[in-house]
């Protein structure tokens, strides 16, 4: 694309694909997540669902729901013997091992590719075209697991004396944005080797079950840029203010956003899910306000236990503010450069 084009025009022309990878068991959850994405984006979404060891015979309601929202669904089979033989542990399923393989099939057709786990609900515009990658191949959000076995177990942020630079260099793989111009096919080989290494020991966690996430972090160590936390607000933040307004809620863990249940889903969830389920021809949940009341009661009950997470998020948000200011300067410089060339 000629450099004389305005930067905003280039963003509008950017080709973006959104991808999910699922098996038969996770397909219903995937439908909810994909429709939430299409509902929340102001423009057309190209949505690719890669299916592992199954292919839906009929996706009429799913496809119709996306078409009604101006988006397009493509279903494809996926397999990668070099990585799928690794045993899935805990809540990790074999399809999650295939996210890089799925992205690799589309790198020649799109400028940016957004991978999403199927336990994600998207509420607001993601503004993928505005991400400043530099030379990095991917962008992601830092992982928010504060458990004693997690990657942050040796950090000092919990003392209250740490700054935004100590939020960790380990990202959550539930949402990854790929800049295809920076992609190298060799990353697939690096990832396969990382899975083999992880099978022997994990360099990040104790008693690790995050097979795909750790291997992807190994593959892209120091090769990723941090997205704002709101792009992947993970379930551990559920009882903080950040969860309330997040653009993306990630229900990582054993309990997902559906079926809807008291104390776990708030009104925002229920209203959004009702819109999704109506489009999919499914029964809606009554009395969203009742869920809000019960959720707030749970937030109050969990307030003290969420102290560490609030402190951690404060550091994350400070880092986000610094990054946004840096990106604003870079984008302003790019626009000035483009204007100068056009003149």
Note down, in words, how this protein is organized.
By secondary structure, the chain is of the alpha/beta class. 38% of the residues lie in helices and 14% in strands. It contains eleven helices and ten strands. A seven-stranded mixed beta sheet has the order 3-2-1-4-7-6-8, with helices on both faces. A three-stranded mixed beta sheet has the order 5-10-9. α2 packs across α9, α6 (186-198) crosses α7 (211-219) and α9 (267-279) runs antiparallel to α10 (288-301). The radius of gyration is 20 Å and the shape is globular. Residues 1-9 and 338-343 have low confidence and may be disordered.
List strands and helices in order, with pairings:
Elements: H1 7-13, E1 16-22, H2 27-40, E2 46-51, H3 60-68, E3 72-77, H4 81-84, H5 99-104, E4 112-116, E5 120-122, E6 138-142, E7 171-179, H6 186-198, H7 211-219, E8 224-226, E9 233-234, H8 241-245, E10 248-250, H9 267-279, H10 288-301, H11 307-342
Helix pairs in contact: 2-9, 6-7, 9-10
Task: Report a brief summary of the structure.
The protein has 343 residues and is an alpha/beta fold.
Key words describing this protein structure:
343 residues, alpha/beta, 7-stranded mixed sheet, 38% helix, disordered N terminus, disordered C terminus
Order of helices and strands: HEHEHEHHEEEEHHEEHEHHH
Distance between the termini: 17 Å
Q: What structural category do the secondary elements indicate? A: alpha/beta
Number of discrete helical segments:
11
- What would you report as the Rg, rounded to the nearest angstrom? 20 Å
**In total, how many beta strands?**
10
The strand order across the widest sheet is: 3-2-1-4-7-6-8
Report low-confidence residues grouped into runs of 5 or more. Answer: 1-9, 338-343
- What kind of sheet is the major sheet? 7 strands, mixed
Q: Choose one word for the global shape.
A: globular
The overall pLDDT, averaged over residues, is 88
Helix content: 25-40%
Strand content: 5-15%
């Amino acid at each position: 694309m000629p450099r004389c084009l305005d930067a905003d025009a280039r963003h509008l022309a950017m080709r973006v694909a959104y991808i999910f990878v699922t098996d038969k068991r996770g397909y219903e959850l995937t439908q909810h997540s994909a429709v939430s994405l299409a509902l929340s984006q102001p423009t057309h979404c190209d949505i690719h669902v890669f299916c592992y060891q199954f292919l839906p015979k009929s996706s009429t309601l799913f496809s119709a729901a996306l078409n009604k929202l101006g988006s397009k669904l493509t279903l494809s089979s996926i397999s990668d013997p070099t990585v799928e033989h690794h045993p899935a542990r805990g809540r990790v399923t074999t399809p999650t091992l295939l996210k890089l393989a799925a992205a690799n099939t589309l790198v020649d057709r799109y400028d940016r590719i957004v991978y999403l786990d199927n336990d994600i609900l998207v509420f607001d515009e993601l503004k993928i075209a505005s991400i400043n990658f530099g030379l990095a191949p991917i962008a992601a959000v830092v992982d928010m697991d504060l458990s004693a076995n997690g990657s942050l177990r040796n950090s000092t942020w919990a003392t209250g004396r740490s700054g935004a630079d100590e939020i960790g260099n380990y990202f959550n793989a539930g949402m990854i944005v790929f800049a295809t111009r920076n992609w190298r096919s060799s990353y697939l080989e690096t990832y396969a080797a990382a899975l083999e290494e992880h099978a022997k020991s994990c360099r990040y966690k104790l008693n690790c079950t995050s097979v795909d996430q750790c291997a992807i972090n190994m593959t892209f160590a120091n090769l990723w840029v941090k997205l704002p936390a709101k792009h992947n607000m993970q379930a551990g933040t559920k009882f903080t203010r950040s969860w309330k307004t997040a653009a993306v809620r990630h229900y990582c863990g054993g309990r997902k956003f559906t079926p809807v249940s008291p104390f776990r889903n708030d009104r925002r969830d229920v209203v959004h899910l009702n819109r999704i389920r109506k489009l999919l021809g499914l029964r809606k949940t009554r009395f969203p306000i009742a869920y809000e009341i019960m959720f707030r009661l749970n937030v109050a009950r969990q307030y003290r236990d969420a102290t560490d997470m609030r402190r951690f998020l404060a550091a994350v948000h400070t880092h986000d503010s610094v990054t946004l200011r840096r990106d604003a300067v870079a984008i302003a410089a790019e626009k000035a450069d483009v204007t100068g060339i056009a003149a």
